[in-house]
TrEMBL record:
<comment type="similarity">
    <text>Belongs to the ureidoglycolate lyase family.</text>
</comment>
<comment type="pathway">
    <text>Nitrogen metabolism; (S)-allantoin degradation.</text>
</comment>
<keyword id="KW-0456">Lyase</keyword>
<protein>
    <recommendedName>
        <fullName>Ureidoglycolate lyase</fullName>
        <ecNumber>4.3.2.3</ecNumber>
    </recommendedName>
</protein>
<dbReference type="InterPro" id="IPR047233">
    <property type="entry name" value="UAH_cupin"/>
</dbReference>
<keyword id="KW-0659">Purine metabolism</keyword>
<dbReference type="InterPro" id="IPR007247">
    <property type="entry name" value="Ureidogly_lyase"/>
</dbReference>
<dbReference type="InterPro" id="IPR011051">
    <property type="entry name" value="RmlC_Cupin_sf"/>
</dbReference>
<dbReference type="Pfam" id="PF04115">
    <property type="entry name" value="Ureidogly_lyase"/>
</dbReference>
<dbReference type="InterPro" id="IPR024060">
    <property type="entry name" value="Ureidoglycolate_lyase_dom_sf"/>
</dbReference>
<dbReference type="GO" id="GO:0016829">
    <property type="term" value="F:lyase activity"/>
</dbReference>
<comment type="function">
    <text>Catalyzes the catabolism of the allantoin degradation intermediate (S)-ureidoglycolate, generating urea and glyoxylate. Involved in the utilization of allantoin as nitrogen source.</text>
</comment>
<dbReference type="InterPro" id="IPR023525">
    <property type="entry name" value="Ureidogly_lyase_bac"/>
</dbReference>
<comment type="subunit">
    <text>Homodimer.</text>
</comment>
Length: 165
């Protein structure tokens, strides 16, 4: 199966089958803390690490442009993986439901630089795709023993096209 994907806008509801959008409006609770000087947008997404440990890293993504050929997807069976843009630049997310141990129909989301994504454990996704310029992302994911990467290569690539027609 292959074809053309047109990126959808990233919204919490649309993305929820794959994880959570990291943005203030998607917080489970909003609390004033620090004597009212700070607002805590609480518990936006769980960090799943199983028996491992949570890692904080910075990914410096080289820029891609559309159309993008999606030849593979990956997933992390032992933990979640969250990406938050540090420099406010756009990026592309490609995810897919699981279909009997392989990716089902992929979906692409065009993400503005003010929102992050957290892939739930074992969700098929494309590795980081920064758009336009090199950009840094804060990444929270799982470290420790065990194989935490499964990859699937499509027979035919999908082409992610710009929605602008
Ligand atoms: N390999 C690695 O740490 N990065 C990927 O998991 C990714 O989703 O970018
Ligand atoms: Ni990943």
């Amino acid at each position: 199966m292959s074809g053309v994907l047109f990126p959808e806008p990233l919204t919490a509801d649309a993305f929820r089958p794959f994880g959570e959008v990291i943005e203030p409006d998607n917080a489970s609770e909003i609390k004033l803390i620090n004597n009212g000087t700070t607002t805590r947008f609480h518990d936006i997404a769980p960090v799943e690490v199983g028996e491992g440990r949570a890692l904080i890293s910075i990914f410096r993504g080289k820029p891609f442009a559309l159309p993008l050929q999606v030849r593979m997807l990956e997933r992390h069976p032992l933990g979640s993986q969250a990406f938050m843009p540090i420099e406010g630049r756009p990026y592309l997310v490609v995810v897919a439901p699981d279909d009997g141990g392989r990716p089902g129909a992929p979906r692409a989301f065009l993400c503005e630089g003010d929102k992050g994504v957290s892939y739930a454990r074992n969700v098929w996704h494309h590795p980081l795709v920064a758009l336009g310029e090199r950009s840094d992302f804060l990444v929270v994911d799982r470290g420790g023993e065990g194989v935490n990467l499964e990859e699937f290569v499509f027979d035919e690539p999908y082409s992610v096209e710009s929605s602008a027609r």
